[in-house]
Amino acid sequence: MLIAANRIYNNNRANQSTEGDLESIPAGAGILIVGSDSVRIHSNEVTGNNTLGVAIIQNPLASQDSRKIDLNPNGDEVKLNVVVNNGTKPSGGLSGADLFYDGSGNGNCFAKNRFKTSVPPDIEATFPCHH
Fold it and tell me: Are strands 97-101 and 52-57 parallel, antiparallel or unpaired?
C-alpha cells in the first residue's frame, strides 16, 4: 500500500467512535500504521497533529482476532515526508512525536524525512532504509 502526496494537518478532534478497535485511536494522529505490512509512506506533509505525526506500532488487539493475525508491522517505509509540529499535546498516555515507532516487527525504516522530534530519538539512524 502507498500513502503519498497528502496534506494531513490539525487532525485533533476527539475520537467519538464506539466501534471496538477504532475507539482506541488517540485524538491527534496524522498517519497511524497499526500492525500492517509493506506500507510505503512517501512525500506527505503531516503537521499540527497533537499526538503523533507518522507512527508505526504493533496491533494491540491482534490476540483477540480469531484469525490469528500477525500483530507486528513488517516492511513499512517512511521516506521523504515533512512531519513537523506534531506531538505537542499528546493524548492517551502516549509520548508525542513527529515520527514514532514502537520497535516491533522487522524491516521497518525511516529515511530523508524532515522532522524535529522522534520516538525513539535518532529514529532514522536507528531504523535506516537500505534501498
Answer: parallel
pLDDT tens per residue, range 4-46: 999 999 999 887 888 776 777 788 999 999 989 999 999 999 9
- Report the number of distinct structural domains present in the chain: 1
CA-based Rg of the chain, rounded to a whole angstrom?
Answer: 14
Confirm whether 131 is domain-assigned: no
DSSP-assigned beta bridge partners for residue 45: 7, 82
Could you read off the pLDDT of 39-70 as tens digits, one per residue? 999 999 999 999 999 999 998 765 566 666 78
pTM score of the predicted model: 0.90
Dist CA 75 CA 10 (whole Å)? 28
From CA 16, how far away is CA 24, in angstroms rounded?
A: 10
In the chain, count of helices (H) and strands (E)?
Answer: 1, 12
